[in-house]
Amino acid sequence: MFCYKSQRKSVLDLWIAVGDPGRMQPRHLGPDLTTSAIGLGCMGLSQGYGPADDDESVRAIHRALDAGITMLDTAMSYGQGHNERLIGRALAGRREQAVIATKFGIVRGEDGVTVDGRPEHVRGYCEASLRRLGTDVIDVYYLHRVDPGVPVAETAGAMAGLVADGLVRHLGVSEATPAQLEQAAGAAPISAVQIEWSLLWRGPETDIVPAARRLGVGLVTYSPLGRGLLTSTLTSEAIDESDFRRHDPRFHGTDLDRNLRQVAALRDLAAGLDVTPGQLALAWLLAQGPDVVPIPGSRRPDRIAQNAAAADIRLTDADLRRLEDAVPRSDWAGDRTSFAAAVTARDSG
């Protein structure tokens, strides 16, 4: 039996109804980065999942803050700066409640999308993000993708200069290999590595997760709900409307059929808890270690409150074994699409 069923529903109702910014336990990443156990991925407020409404997006961000979510994750490339400006607008008068995480290195322009990690450009990218965000310091500054033409240690060294000058508090890298993470950490104090990790995509458990732990680097997990698949609410229309799902093998053909069978099993387990499948998927990630912070994205305030409530779920070892038996790692199917990522093919783990 799952241990949490007896008390789960009243806690969830409280979160959805009013939120409680004092309830979510903090997590500590790297040497001294403190954030909420669950963050908010903000990319979908500007791109990737169909049209968005800025006023609605601001309300969603405010709902996240009210629910105790502090980490707001954005990037200079999201909407070509729109996302950072949106967060700056939402945080007017509430800046002290947020841990702003933004990223540089993916550049969107008229000629398409490129990667730029040249050290001489790092400060300019940072200063532009600060202006768009309307703040004088970025809490977490990531290299969004490692530039294949630049040693990552050189990029990280330039990032360290931003910390020394007080423009940035903490540093991170996104979608790095274990070797790249080690090189970056040798040149600068790296607090977090951002990776795609979820029940649907468990490859990081083989390599980057143990490497990060060896180096004392925290794990920030994007797409923790499998780009929506693990919520058990996706429709075929939602797949077609999203650039990030429409071209992803996991959402098509026999791979999708296999994954939907897994989601059905996840849904059955969640029903026994009086929680949603998405909450169970987030609770599973949180149970992987105190150094894990998922950053699910949503435009809907009620979904954001549901995601925040997942931080209260406690799964025992027996619960986790039951979940592993019901939705084994080996039964998820399909490779992934992710721009300029080092690993997109599913391993056999």
Could you provide a short overview of the structure?
Helix content is 40%, strand content 16%.
Quick tags:
349 residues; alpha/beta; TIM Barrel; two-stranded antiparallel ribbon; 40% helix; globular; disordered N terminus
What is the CATH domain class? Alpha Beta
Characterize the biggest β-sheet.
8 strands, parallel
* Number of contiguous helices: 13
Name the CATH superfamily assignment.
NADP-dependent oxidoreductase domain
Q: Uncertain segments of ≥5 residues (pLDDT<50)?
A: 1-22
- Alpha-beta classification: alpha/beta
Tell me the total number of β-strands: 12
Question: How many domains make up the 3D coordinates?
Answer: 1
CATH topology: TIM Barrel
Helix content: 40-55%
The whole-angstrom Rg is 19 Å
- Give the DSSP E fraction (strand runs of 2 or more residues): 15-25%
SSE pattern, N- to C-terminal: HEEEHEHEEEHEHEHEHEHHHHEHH
Gap between N and C termini: 27 Å
Give the CATH architecture. Alpha-Beta Barrel
Overall average residue pLDDT: 91
Strand order in the largest sheet: 3-4-5-8-9-10-11-12
Oligomer: single chain
